[in-house]
Amino acid sequence: CSVAAYCGRDCQTADWGKRGAFGGHKGLCPDYRVLGKAQMVPAEGRRLALERLLSKMRLYACPFAVHHAGVQGRGVLLLQSENTLAQLALPAPRDCFGHMVQRSVLLQYLTLTKVDEMLESSNGAFDDLTAPRAIISTVVSSHGDGEMVVLVRLRCGFVAALVTQLVPDLRICMQLATDYKGKEVLQLDLDDM
Protein backbone atom coordinates (compact mmCIF):
# COMPACT_ATOMS: atom_id res chain seq x y z
CA CYS A 1 0.00 0.00 0.00
CA SER A 2 3.05 2.23 0.42
CA VAL A 3 1.48 3.81 3.50
CA ALA A 4 2.52 1.67 6.46
CA ALA A 5 6.10 2.12 7.64
CA TYR A 6 8.08 -0.73 9.14
CA CYS A 7 11.47 -0.85 10.81
CA GLY A 8 12.44 -3.78 8.62
CA ARG A 9 11.29 -6.65 6.42
CA ASP A 10 10.87 -9.01 9.39
CA CYS A 11 8.40 -6.64 11.07
CA GLN A 12 6.50 -6.17 7.83
CA THR A 13 6.23 -9.94 7.29
CA ALA A 14 5.15 -10.46 10.91
CA ASP A 15 2.38 -7.86 10.55
CA TRP A 16 0.94 -9.27 7.31
CA GLY A 17 -2.03 -11.64 7.16
CA LYS A 18 -3.81 -12.52 10.38
CA ARG A 19 -0.60 -13.00 12.35
CA GLY A 20 -0.08 -9.34 13.13
CA ALA A 21 -1.59 -7.28 15.91
CA PHE A 22 -5.18 -6.11 15.33
CA GLY A 23 -5.73 -8.83 12.73
CA GLY A 24 -2.76 -7.98 10.54
CA HIS A 25 -2.16 -5.24 8.01
CA LYS A 26 -3.56 -7.17 5.05
CA GLY A 27 -7.17 -6.69 6.21
CA LEU A 28 -6.61 -3.09 7.35
CA CYS A 29 -4.63 -1.92 4.32
CA PRO A 30 -7.55 -0.32 2.39
CA ASP A 31 -8.45 1.88 5.37
CA TYR A 32 -4.86 2.99 5.90
CA ARG A 33 -4.54 3.69 2.16
CA VAL A 34 -7.49 6.13 2.33
CA LEU A 35 -5.70 8.14 5.03
CA GLY A 36 -2.36 8.03 3.21
CA LYS A 37 1.02 8.87 4.71
CA ALA A 38 -0.28 12.30 5.70
CA GLN A 39 -2.89 10.58 7.91
CA MET A 40 -5.68 12.89 6.71
CA VAL A 41 -9.29 12.05 5.93
CA PRO A 42 -10.11 13.38 2.45
CA ALA A 43 -13.12 15.71 2.26
CA GLU A 44 -15.21 13.09 0.45
CA GLY A 45 -14.47 10.53 3.20
CA ARG A 46 -15.37 12.62 6.25
CA ARG A 47 -19.02 11.62 6.41
CA LEU A 48 -18.12 7.92 6.14
CA ALA A 49 -15.45 8.29 8.85
CA LEU A 50 -17.99 9.98 11.12
CA GLU A 51 -20.64 7.32 10.43
CA ARG A 52 -18.13 4.56 11.25
CA LEU A 53 -17.21 6.32 14.47
CA LEU A 54 -20.86 6.63 15.49
CA SER A 55 -21.56 3.00 14.62
CA LYS A 56 -18.84 1.89 17.08
CA MET A 57 -20.49 3.65 19.99
CA ARG A 58 -24.22 3.65 19.25
CA LEU A 59 -25.04 1.10 21.97
CA TYR A 60 -23.73 3.60 24.54
CA ALA A 61 -24.41 6.98 22.92
CA CYS A 62 -28.03 6.42 21.90
CA PRO A 63 -29.33 5.27 25.32
CA PHE A 64 -27.30 8.09 26.93
CA ALA A 65 -28.99 10.65 24.65
CA VAL A 66 -32.44 9.09 25.16
CA HIS A 67 -32.05 9.27 28.94
CA HIS A 68 -31.05 12.92 28.92
CA ALA A 69 -33.70 13.87 26.35
CA GLY A 70 -36.32 12.33 28.65
CA VAL A 71 -35.03 14.29 31.65
CA GLN A 72 -34.01 17.61 30.05
CA GLY A 73 -36.06 17.81 26.85
CA ARG A 74 -34.93 18.12 23.24
CA GLY A 75 -31.30 18.85 22.61
CA VAL A 76 -28.12 17.56 20.99
CA LEU A 77 -25.52 14.98 21.84
CA LEU A 78 -22.17 16.76 21.92
CA LEU A 79 -19.33 14.45 20.88
CA GLN A 80 -15.87 15.84 21.60
CA SER A 81 -12.44 14.28 21.36
CA GLU A 82 -8.80 15.20 21.84
CA ASN A 83 -8.16 13.00 18.80
CA THR A 84 -8.25 14.13 15.20
CA LEU A 85 -10.75 12.77 12.71
CA ALA A 86 -7.92 10.82 11.05
CA GLN A 87 -6.96 9.19 14.36
CA LEU A 88 -10.57 8.24 15.01
CA ALA A 89 -10.82 6.86 11.45
CA LEU A 90 -7.83 4.55 11.89
CA PRO A 91 -8.88 0.90 11.57
CA ALA A 92 -6.68 -0.01 14.57
CA PRO A 93 -5.25 2.00 17.48
CA ARG A 94 -1.96 2.71 15.71
CA ASP A 95 -0.99 5.12 12.97
CA CYS A 96 0.78 4.22 9.72
CA PHE A 97 4.14 4.66 11.46
CA GLY A 98 3.29 2.03 14.08
CA HIS A 99 2.76 4.49 16.94
CA MET A 100 -0.03 3.53 19.32
CA VAL A 101 -2.91 6.02 19.56
CA GLN A 102 -5.24 6.30 22.57
CA ARG A 103 -8.68 7.00 21.11
CA SER A 104 -11.55 8.23 23.22
CA VAL A 105 -14.58 10.48 22.98
CA LEU A 106 -16.48 12.50 25.53
CA LEU A 107 -20.27 12.65 25.24
CA GLN A 108 -22.47 15.28 26.83
CA TYR A 109 -26.14 16.09 26.28
CA LEU A 110 -26.97 19.76 25.74
CA THR A 111 -30.36 21.44 25.62
CA LEU A 112 -30.79 24.26 23.10
CA THR A 113 -30.12 26.82 25.83
CA LYS A 114 -26.85 25.10 26.69
CA VAL A 115 -25.96 24.87 23.00
CA ASP A 116 -26.42 28.65 22.69
CA GLU A 117 -24.23 29.23 25.75
CA MET A 118 -21.56 26.91 24.38
CA LEU A 119 -21.59 28.58 20.95
CA GLU A 120 -21.22 32.02 22.54
CA SER A 121 -18.26 30.94 24.68
CA SER A 122 -16.53 28.75 22.06
CA ASN A 123 -14.21 31.49 20.74
CA GLY A 124 -15.00 30.65 17.13
CA ALA A 125 -14.61 26.86 17.45
CA PHE A 126 -17.89 26.37 15.62
CA ASP A 127 -17.37 29.01 12.91
CA ASP A 128 -17.29 26.26 10.27
CA LEU A 129 -20.99 25.62 10.85
CA THR A 130 -23.03 28.04 8.78
CA ALA A 131 -25.45 29.83 11.10
CA PRO A 132 -25.03 27.13 13.79
CA ARG A 133 -27.83 28.30 16.10
CA ALA A 134 -30.41 28.35 13.32
CA ILE A 135 -29.32 24.98 11.94
CA ILE A 136 -29.21 23.27 15.30
CA SER A 137 -32.53 24.76 16.43
CA THR A 138 -34.22 23.64 13.22
CA VAL A 139 -32.70 20.17 13.33
CA VAL A 140 -33.52 19.64 16.99
CA SER A 141 -37.12 20.75 16.59
CA SER A 142 -37.72 18.68 13.46
CA HIS A 143 -36.01 15.34 14.13
CA GLY A 144 -38.18 12.32 14.87
CA ASP A 145 -38.42 10.15 17.98
CA GLY A 146 -36.24 7.46 16.40
CA GLU A 147 -33.40 9.90 15.75
CA MET A 148 -30.85 11.95 17.65
CA VAL A 149 -28.95 15.10 16.76
CA VAL A 150 -25.16 14.89 17.15
CA LEU A 151 -22.81 17.87 17.25
CA VAL A 152 -19.17 16.86 16.74
CA ARG A 153 -16.05 18.84 17.67
CA LEU A 154 -12.60 17.31 17.33
CA ARG A 155 -9.06 18.47 18.14
CA CYS A 156 -8.18 18.96 14.47
CA GLY A 157 -10.91 21.59 14.15
CA PHE A 158 -13.39 19.25 12.47
CA VAL A 159 -16.95 20.32 13.32
CA ALA A 160 -20.17 18.71 12.12
CA ALA A 161 -23.86 18.52 12.99
CA LEU A 162 -25.96 15.59 11.85
CA VAL A 163 -29.10 13.61 12.53
CA THR A 164 -28.68 9.87 12.96
CA GLN A 165 -30.97 6.94 13.70
CA LEU A 166 -31.20 5.55 17.21
CA VAL A 167 -29.61 2.12 17.41
CA PRO A 168 -30.97 0.09 19.07
CA ASP A 169 -34.51 1.33 18.53
CA LEU A 170 -36.19 3.80 20.89
CA ARG A 171 -37.93 1.14 23.01
CA ILE A 172 -34.67 -0.66 23.78
CA CYS A 173 -32.79 2.63 24.25
CA MET A 174 -35.35 3.61 26.89
CA GLN A 175 -34.67 0.38 28.79
CA LEU A 176 -30.90 0.86 28.57
CA ALA A 177 -31.20 4.56 29.47
CA THR A 178 -31.54 3.77 33.18
CA ASP A 179 -27.81 2.98 33.22
CA TYR A 180 -27.09 6.66 32.63
CA LYS A 181 -29.14 8.15 35.45
CA GLY A 182 -26.99 10.75 37.21
CA LYS A 183 -24.22 10.63 34.59
CA GLU A 184 -23.83 14.05 33.00
CA VAL A 185 -20.81 13.08 30.91
CA LEU A 186 -19.84 9.78 29.33
CA GLN A 187 -16.27 8.96 28.27
CA LEU A 188 -15.81 6.09 25.84
CA ASP A 189 -12.44 4.52 25.15
CA LEU A 190 -13.01 3.40 21.57
CA ASP A 191 -10.49 0.58 21.56
CA ASP A 192 -11.95 -1.04 24.69
CA MET A 193 -15.38 -1.49 23.15
From TrEMBL:
Could you tell me what this protein is called?
A: MYND-type domain-containing protein
Q: Which organism is it from?
A: Haptolina ericina
